[in-house]
Design goal:
It contains eight helices and seven strands. The protein is an alpha/beta fold and 220 residues long. The protein has two domains: 165 residues, no CATH class; 43 residues. The strands form two sheets. It has a five-stranded mixed β-sheet, with helices on one face. Strands 3-4 form a two-stranded parallel sheet. A hairpin with a 4-residue loop joins strand 5 and strand 6. The C terminus is likely disordered.
């Protein structure tokens, strides 16, 4: 589902990750995936060490990535025309034919929260795309999930909850009218998945729920 979102990591008073994603930004999607990473996959010392090796890609570096991706796409098209059988069976990009996702996943709109494990397990320092300013687009940025390693909190940001404009800006303090903080969890005592989703969804007015959700809410 096209629910645009950000995955943020803050460390040593700096935003180190600001990963845009096009899909599944809601609590049952990106929220639960990030919760699972924190509870079951994160090696905190290793993650911090790897995080410190990351840097923001410059405009020139991002432009070079686009040029490289275009070159690969052109080569793949040549292969597809000249030898379709080999293209289908041997090319690791052939099934989705998405060069950027396969060759440069850190810049792809599908990556989202997966950047967390990519950073932790990467053999080389990663250059990341800084999409932090997207947090100010409260029409399209429906959710932001921020791991603050300074305060050891997982913070949830959105714009659809009650009294949205009165809520803190949190990690988005430098932006004028960003998504706002609606819930914060201690990284050391994170809830189970069911409780995690429940406490976040409880902040939303009933009119935001689907008809099925609303009827279940009325019966409970």
């Amino acid at each position: 589902m096209g629910t645009r979102n950000l995955t943020i990591v803050k460390h040593n008073e700096e935003i180190k990750v600001a990963q845009y994603c096009q899909w599944d930004g809601y609590p049952e999607g990106a929220g639960l995936a990030i919760l699972d990473f924190l509870q079951n996959e994160m090696d905190l010392p290793k993650f911090k060490e790897q995080l410190n090796k990351c840097a923001w890609a410059t405009a020139e570096e991002l432009s070079a990535v686009d040029e490289t991706a275009d070159t690969i796409r052109a080569k793949l098209e040549e292969l597809k025309i000249s030898n379709p059988e080999r293209y289908d069976n041997e090319n690791p990009m052939s099934k989705r034919n998405d060069v950027l996702l396969n060759a440069f996943p850190q810049y792809h709109r599908d990556t989202g929260y997966k950047i967390l494990l990519m950073i932790q397990e990467s053999k080389n320092p990663l250059l990341l795309q800084n999409s932090f300013a997207f947090g100010e687009d409260t029409t399209w940025c429906e959710w932001a999930w921020a791991i603050d390693l300074d305060t050891m909190r997982l913070e949830v940001y959105s714009s659809g909850f009650d009294n949205f404009h009165d809520a803190p800006k949190g990690v988005f303090e430098t932006l004028d009218e960003p998504v706002r903080l609606c819930k914060s969890f201690d990284l050391n005592i994170l809830p189970d998945p069911i409780e995690f989703v429940r406490v976040i969804e409880a902040l939303w007015p009933t009119k935001w729920l689907t008809p099925t959700d609303a009827s279940e809410d009325a019966e409970s």
